[in-house]
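Appendix B: complex inputs.
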Amino acid sequence: MLGRTYEHENCSAARALEVAGERWSLLILRDAIFRGLTRFSEFERSLGLATNVLASRLDLFVAEELMELVPASGHTGQLEYRLTAKGRDFEGVVVALAAWGDRWSAPDGPPIQFHHASCGGPVTVDLRCSGCDRVIQAGDVLADPGPGNRSGKEFRR
Amino acid sequence: MLGRTYEHENCSAARALEVAGERWSLLILRDAIFRGLTRFSEFERSLGLATNVLASRLDLFVAEELMELVPASGHTGQLEYRLTAKGRDFEGVVVALAAWGDRWSAPDGPPIQFHHASCGGPVTVDLRCSGCDRVIQAGDVLADPGPGNRSGKEFRR
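Resulting structure:
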């Protein structure tokens, strides 16, 4: 485990932010997941960020097993950063962020639209209750300590 | 509009990260949404972060209308940071981040469990297709330029 940004936080959202909450991290994952980028030079061109920042983010993704650094196909001698299942699983976070931005910060309409590959329909992010199988409306979610809780902090609404 | 962290990014996920992608921002929103915190001192105690950092994050939330700074109830003369609908709408992002952390970084089980307030059932984050109304499996989402797109960047899988 690398140094923890949110050391005293006993929370899975904090753990997720430790591997993907630095500046540019989630946009690198977005480009890997939705643009299929794998090469250092591709990320650099797409995002226009400083080389040392990009290298540091990709290093962390490899160390935390969100990506694997493997020889590129075609025997070119180049390396590529390939998403693992753990990295690809940030798909839902990226779509949830984009959904918020589409609702509150997209006066010209969504810059990017997410479609269901199988049928072409538009993708929404739902909070769903596994108990009653309903889509949960905003503000109808409660948080409680779970089995991994050590903080003893109170939750309420 | 404040200075943009991701100025050349024509993407709603990048817009969302500009208001909530700084260190601590999403954990402050988590505490406001799920712990009901509203006072500066409550956030400070809960998160243990530096006063100037907390002040800067809360200022940005007020400027971007995720929170309103209003007199606290009870005529105490204190002020509180109250979530707006725009701020509360980060609920889905926080739950999506926690879901990732629960799957990949919670060896003792989820530290926090999210429940449906109405029936008590466990909350899941689903990507759902509005076309065929199915839950979308990982890797079955395509991204395409939408009406607000100005970048001309390619998307593929």
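The first strand of chain A starts at residue 67 and ends at 71.
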